[in-house]
Task: structure prediction
Amino acid sequence: MRVILLGPPGAGKGTQAAAVKERFQIPHISTGDMLREHVKEGTELGRKAKEYMDGGKLVPDDLIIAMMEDRLSKEDCAGGFLLDGFPRTLPQAEALDRLLSKMGIKLDGVVLLDVSDDVVVERLSGRRVCRSCGAIYHVSFHPSSRGDLCEACGGELYQRDDDREEVIRRRLKVYHEQTAPLESYYEGKGLLRRVSGEGATDAVLKVLQGN
Ligand code: ADP
Ligand code: ADP
Ligand code: ZN
Result:
């Protein structure tokens, strides 16, 4: 199972990826999570990426492509992977195509999680994430039964720096301008499946199980 999850920020990619990862036992590769880890650890990449991320802009393609070439060549990707947040631009998609063909593998599909801009703003303004295990919550739609602590591991829940309304608007604009063109790119290759992201959180898993 080699799949890309496409969709605007807040569509529910991370939430739905967790179920897919569990069911198919494949790594969930989120470029956002990887970058936040680099920022936390203060690596060179993290230092370069931080100001773009804080401003809701995309990190330059060459940095992302190098990071992903490295990640996809790791052994745990041999049996499949779920990409979340990559590719996000046409040059990234083309680089991924070249990389996969060099590795002699093909994508099985691209699932587009569709949600309206209003829903995105509502979701991201209430999103909370566990600092320890990365579990995703929402203050109204999916609150933790332990308040400010993670249900799964007891870790502290926090609000991401870029989940503020003005940055959310910027990220949405960036999505429509730079990432949405990937929808027709993958449609042209016959790989795209559209799924509503406004319903249940197992919609992606259901589509993939129908394979
Ligand atoms: P993405 O990875 O696409 O940015 P997340 O999975 O982090 O999105 O979800 C964004 C926010 O929306 C989180 O607070 C999450 O709890 C909430 N959320 C995700 N899917 C749904 C859904 N189907 N209905 C209601 N809220 C949802
Ligand atoms: P979202 O909730 O918007 O899906 P992510 O966690 O995927 O957020 O990404 C957070 C930030 O990390 C983005 O706003 C961007 O600055 C950076 N980022 C993540 N993935 C990429 C990518 N493939 N290309 C460029 N920048 C990226
Ligand atoms: Zn946790």
